[in-house]
Amino acid sequence: MTLHQTNLTTAELRAIDAAHHLHPFTDTKGLNAEGARVIVKAKGVHLWDSDGNQIIDGMSGLWNVNIGYGREEIVDVVAQQMRELPFYNTFFKTTHLPAIELSRLLAEVTPPQFSRVFFTGSGSESNDTIIRMVRHYWAAQDKPGKSTIIARKNGYHGSTIGGASLGGMTPMHAQGGLPIPGIVHIAQPYWYAEGGDRSPEEFGLWAARELERTIDELGADTIAAFIAEPIQGAGAVVIPPATYWPEIQRICRERDILLVSDEVICGFGRTGEWFGCEYFGVQPDIMAMAKGISSGYLPIGGVMVTEKVAEVIANAGDFNHGYTYSGHPACAAAAIANIKILREEKIVERVKSDIGPYMQKQWLALGDHPMVGEARMVGLIGALELTPNKKTRASWPVETGTVGLIARDFSFQHGLVMRATRDTLIIAPPLVISHEEVDALIAAAKKTLDDSWAEVK
Ligand code: PLP
Q1: What is the pLDDT of residue 4?
Q2: Measuring CA to CA, which residue among 303, 302, 306, 232 is closest to residue 271?
Q3: In ligand 1, which atom is closest to the CA atom of 234?
Q4: What is the ipTM of this complex?
Q5: Predicted confidence band at 7 (pLDDT cuts at 50, 70, 90)?
Q6: Cβ partners under 8 Å of residue 234, min gap 6
Q7: Per the entry, which co-factors are needed (predicted)?
Q8: Residue 455 to residues 322, 375, 432: CA-CA distances in angstroms?
Q9: pTM, full prediction
Q10: Is the pLDDT reported for residue 25 higher than 90?
Q11: Which of 91, 122, 371, 439 could serve as a FRET partner for 249 with CA atoms 20 to 30 Å apart?
Q12: Which residues in 191-219 are b (16+ Cβ under 10 Å) and which e?
């Protein structure tokens, strides 16, 4: 149903939504008292709501619409694919053209150590696949005891039981009895919130060595893998100090632990490199992918593995795992068209050398605002830490409410979607954003800060 096909008013649409739709990660009662924002169309970096308001999508949907909205090429190839072969599976000794082409393309655009992909339908499914795959990998080498997976507090790896267990979000664990056994969470490299008096470099090393301490305590012969996001997205865009990732890699290599990079947000150009691990100069054994793989035009994900991992899996008989929509032809066709656009238009290179630095300069300058304790950004993913006291990086008293959410509401009023995690404002616009659109985004962010400061200082 679109507004073009209905004469319903926004209020009527909201009432239907309230009556029949349970939204993800939402306090339903609170939402229904207010009414959901109804988005009716999008083009480039802009959204339009049912009242005709034009909004800059500073979050690329859910960090996924990397190439922006409205690319007709994708619509055309998907329509053609749906006419030719809308669905066939990749089980039972069968494959199809989009799965073949996408797997080859992924081997080309991922770092050189990667050669093969297992297709999924989402980031959560990719991470569930990884739990089973790494345990199978070690069992196939007569090391079934290597089964525990180490992840991080405040990490996000999805909402399925496996994904939410790998994630370190305590409010998620509190619902449904998570995490499942065999998953251990260590400290996150969140210097602003937890670094105290240590320098970021010292803190980065300390956080990485939490992994070393944990492996040594539990015994390397019990640990299958370590998983983390290169930049922790939902957990407030935690950009680790430069010392962190190389140390993590050293620890995993020395102790024969698989290194898994969750590239669901960072992959496909977000950091100005094709993958976040490349930005930090590390070579993981496995990558979880989704979101930017198709820029959200259709749902698809994948698990990318090195030839070494692939060989073990390939020689271990049946891997008893798969999804009806693993490699779905129309979704794979959308991903192929998306990756071709990223490549041919040199969108990733543009993030690294043009629009990324252009936006970073203005975004980091927001750090001068009286309510901003830290502004940070890599490529086109960034955050503002809001605080009543820049020196101490303090939080607001509980009575003030969640200032991030107050600011997020002002942001909407100024025609900009930002996301809030507690008192952190988050930005991750489409990678195709123009210089003028960055200027407009920054102007709206400034107004947001001014209005929020006037309300809570
Ligand atoms: N991993 C990361 C790093 C994510 O940010 C997300 C979603 O935001 C996921 C996994 C889960 O992906 P999905 O929502 O497609 O299941």
Answers
A1: 56
A2: 232
A3: 5
A4: 0.99
A5: confident
A6: 156, 169, 421
A7: pyridoxal 5'-phosphate
A8: 51, 21, 34
A9: 0.98
A10: yes
A11: 122
A12: bbbbbeeeebeebbbbbbbbbbebbeeee
Q: Is residue 22 pLDDT above 90, yes or no?
A: yes
The finding on whether 234 has its CB within 6 A of some atom of ligand 1 is yes
Lowest mean pLDDT among 129-133, 273-277, 400-404: 400-404
Closest ligand 1 atom number to CA of residue 155: 3
* CB of 423 closer than 6 angstroms to any ligand 1 atom: no
The stretch 115-125 carries a mean pLDDT of: 98
In this structure, the number of other CB atoms found within 10 A of the CB of residue 53 comes to 13
pLDDT per residue as tens digits for the range 293-313: 999 999 999 999 999 999 999
Question: Which position has the token pair 């409205």?
Answer: 70
Determine the Cα–Cα distance for residues 65 and 57; give it in Å rounded to an integer.
10
Instruction: Report the nearest atom of ligand 1 relative to the CA of 290.
Output: 15
Residues 116, 312 contacting (CB under 8 angstroms): no
pLDDT band at 2 (very low <50, low <70, confident <90, very high): low
How much distance in Å is there from the Cα of 164 to the middle of ligand 1?
A: 10
Give the residue whose CA is nearest to atom 13 of ligand 1. 123
- 3-class DSSP state of 320: coil
Measured from the CA of 266, which atom of ligand 1 is nearest?
3
pLDDT band per the 50, 70, 90 thresholds, residue 416? very high
Q: Give the C-alpha separation, 401 to 94, whole Å.
A: 55
Coil vs helix vs strand at 247: helix
